[in-house]
Write a structure and sequence with these properties.
By secondary structure, the chain is an alpha/beta fold. It has 11 helices and 16 strands. It has helices spanning about 10-20, 60-70, 75-85, 95-110, 140-145, 190-205, 225-230, 280-290, 340-360, 375-380, 410-430, and strands spanning about 1-5, 25-30, 55, 85, 90-95, 115, 130, 150-160, 160-165, 175, 185-190, 255-265, 270-275, 300, 305-310, 330.
């Protein structure tokens, strides 16, 4: 039994793993390093091109539940993330190189996986999982667009800058996590005068041109910081710069606004600016972000960038196992299907790989109900939707409880417990 996987990002890597671990011979194509997209810098598989955070790891959060479901289903991405974890409070953040390196090594050394470093420009004979990502090469995008019933859309995505820890002015920066939950973040406090000056500078700064860019086509979860500032003077102070729950130990007070920095590597030599996705020109980033207390003389390891992402009109095109309805030998996985986020992309690859492996072995693909996070996410991309947009997993997508539970945290915990019990049962059936 054989299958092809095109693309070794988070989704493609997870799909290849799920197939190979079940005895399927996998041919994995990855165009890097022979050809790099505008956002990719590393030759490693599963490169994290934006933040190094996989978001919350608590079961009171839907993405925390999705992670735990993936752990139960033996996700390679979750194995690597847990092994490469760096301090980030209640979030799961990783050392990028360790994370991608472990996935790359695992797949390259697997006896059932053969890797080819080359660009694929046509859809091969199935069974195939297409996980070429939102930055699919132009020729492959044309091949995808020619498939029956295909319609593609696009939106814009952005990445935040990364700065060198040794260049920070620690006399102005303090360590703390919100609500005294450890000290995993660095915090740059601003008073009102500093905040006002920063916002004014941000609004007048020069941005890099992005072909076809429109403000209303930016994904809300990765809104450029300058776009947020245009919505109102106080938007940042109530958004990524909110000071709530962060007391400066030097003053004992909350600042007017705070810029948080999250550790980006295991050694703690690099930090990224949380929520500071941007399309400012590089020189403007150094000038404007240099107005933030503690960052006056900072050295940038990577400037923020913006790029165009392509996704499919998945409802009516894909079923809830990410298989093409009109061509059942073709599966899609990853952000191009309309799931948004690292974890969601990997989860779609898990679903596609698991479902395809079952069908290749002559058994029915497992049915994940919408009372589970992975089932709800799969249902979202397949269900009729006239205004389909990329979506993170939320409890709003997951079936509620039959009884009313007023306490939100308790309600979410009960939903998570129910979901994990279902996933455990499905996992046992798959293993059997």
């Amino acid at each position: 039994m054989k299958a092809t996987v095109i693309g070794a990002g988070l989704a493609g890597s997870e799909a290849a793993w799920q197939l190979a671990k079940r005895g399927i011979q996998v041919t994995l194509y990855e165009m890097k390093p022979q050809k790099m997209s505008p956002a990719h810098k590393s030759p490693l598989f599963a490169e994290l091109v934006c933040s190094n955070s996989l978001r919350s790891d608590r079961l009171q959060n839907a993405v925390g539940l999705l992670k735990e479901e993936m752990r139960v289903l033996d996700s390679l991405v979750m194995r690597a993330a847990d092994a490469a974890r760096v301090p980030a409070g209640g979030a799961l953040a990783v050392d990028r190189e360790h994370f991608s390196g472990m996935i790359t090594q695992t797949l390259r050394q697997h006896p059932n996986i053969t890797v080819f470093e080359q660009e694929i420009t046509e859809i091969p004979e199935g069974p195939v999982v297409i996980a070429t990502g939102p930055l699919t090469s132009e020729k492959m995008a044309e091949a995808i667009a020619s498939l029956p019933g295909m319609s593609t859309l696009h939106f814009f995505d952005a990445a935040a800058p990364i700065v060198m820890a040794e260049s920070l002015d620690m006399s102005k920066v303090f360590r703390a996590s919100r609500y005294e939950r450890g000290d995993d973040y660095l915090n740059c406090p601003l008073d009102r005068e500093q905040y006002d000056a920063f916002v004014e500078a941000l609004l007048s700064a020069e941005t890099a041109p992005v072909h076809g860019f429109e403000e209303n086509m930016v994904f809300e979860g990765c809104m450029p910081v300058e776009s947020m500032a245009r919505r109102g003077h106080m938007v940042l102070a109530f958004g990524p710069m909110k000071p709530v729950g962060l007391r400066n130990p030097r003053t004992g007070q909350e600042a007017y606004a705070v810029v948080q920095l999250r550790q980006d590597d295991a050694a703690g030599t690099m930090y990224n600016l949380v929520g500071f996705q941007t399309r400012l020109k590089f020189g403007e980033q150094k000038r404007v972000f240099g107005m933030i207390p503690g960052l006056e003389n900072t050295e940038f390891a990577r400037y923020g960038v913006m790029h165009r992402n392509t996704f499919l009109q998945s409802p009516g095109l894909l079923d809830n196992t990410f298989r093409m309805i009109s061509r059942p030998d073709v599966y899609f996985a990853g952000q191009m299907t309309g799931v948004e986020g690292y974890v969601e992309s990997a989860a779609s690859g898990l679903m596609a790989g698991l479902s395809l492996s079952c069908r290749l072995k002559g058994c029915e693909a497992p049915a994940f109900p919408t009372s589970t996070a992975i089932g709800a996410l799969s249902h979202y991309i397949a269900a009729p939707n006239h205004d389909f947009q990329p979506m993170n997993i939320t409890f709003g997508l997951i079936d509620g409880l039959p009884q009313r539970v007023r306490n939100k945290a308790q309600r979410y915990e009960m939903i998570s417990e129910r979901a994990l019990a279902i996933i455990q049962e499905i996992s046992q059936k798959i293993d059997a």
